[in-house]
């Protein structure tokens, strides 16, 4: 793979290709959580490179938004999954934060309420889908229903087992309706999580982010890894691909997800809508006012 | 009033005081749309000064968000009103864009649908209110129901006439429920609007923003000015104040609204929530994992 330099001096390989999870069995232990795939440079270079994506990603975002306003039905949905402290919020703050917030629809999914549960696990997901021209971002998603639900036995095995196929049908439906899915698993090591949890405990301004339940979840790390592998393996169709983002380095994680989003927008290639009025006639009308 | 220098070298007067619409009759012709109240410096200085607000406004936003996560019920609602091209979208892009998009809830109100109309003009507004810890932003609002509704006779005069009091009751209810309102009228001159509409017509990447109906609305400028004056006069209680933002200079408008938001957050003074768990015990538990 061609390496991307921070100064953009070499042609860019597509990160979409480099981080795409290949079809077939998934073994997360073979993925290096400290890798900087597709990027050559230091942490500081990475931060600069992220900022430099801002102008282009904003431009594409506005084109997509404009298309949506003028009858287009396309949108993008970035799904962020990962263990506690893997940085879903950080990606949104630093990556999505480069874009115009008017074009973003961000939804953070917590444990479902009793009313949500009664409606089936996909109901609340459908409510949160991005409209035409929007970039939707899910901080957690319907995948929790085959992750924590499976690991912590929140439903019986036949129930979560059926969900992989239900998710595939659902995501195929989304793709057919014009939603381009970009599913990112923010992959950290258990050692990195331990450091991040310790840092939260050491910092009074971060105590609000800490939940004693995080340690309980942490004790189930191997079971979560297995559940993630199953999801990445079983729900990885061409229209709803998974990407594994090495996330022990926060700066790389932010750069990588934003780059994937940028490449996705480039592929969609939205164009400025043509005028649906007579430009000269409108200029003449304006002149008389 | 003390002027704020771009380099922050002098003590800041509160822009909240300087731009606040005083109680009593409102005459918009007395407000200079090109003023740079509270700011001393050039356009470039203004852009730099706006960027420099980013860190502090983000910090306050995160504190408010944290408070909301831990049981606090406070939030902020920025209401943006103004004639076409006055820059409601620009304020969101350049001002709100400095903040973490996770803490923002942005709603753009278009003409109400028939279903929305049947539910009363405040129904859809209530659906869009910010939750605890959030900063809500309305691009247009319930004020359209005493602006375009009044100017274009969309409802009978007794109907829109009743709405001022209904709005006052509604906004008092919001304030009592923990929502701090910040209502900004982006004030431009008709000459500036003409230039901006002409610029849209001259730029193919902006045609999607242009609507021939904008010129029809423009012909009603004096009636809109009157309707704005009525709204600013009649719905300007201490808990729901109006601010007039001189908006012919885009850089000043963005700086001013962001500064008002910053001062509002400073007044709320949200603090990092204290740990609701035993920090030492959690450190010990974490060490065993």
TrEMBL record, chains A, B:
Protein name: Polyphosphate kinase-2-related domain-containing protein
Domain Polyphosphate kinase-2-related: 43-268
Organism: Kribbella flavida (strain DSM 17836 / JCM 10339 / NBRC 14399)
NCBIfam families: PPK2_rel_1 (TIGR03709)
Entry superkingdom: Bacteria
GO MF annotation: an example: polyphosphate kinase activity
InterPro entries: P-loop_NTPase, Polyphosphate_phosphotransfera, PPK2-rel_1, PPK2-related
A single GO BP: polyphosphate metabolic process
Keywords tagged on the record: Kinase, Transferase
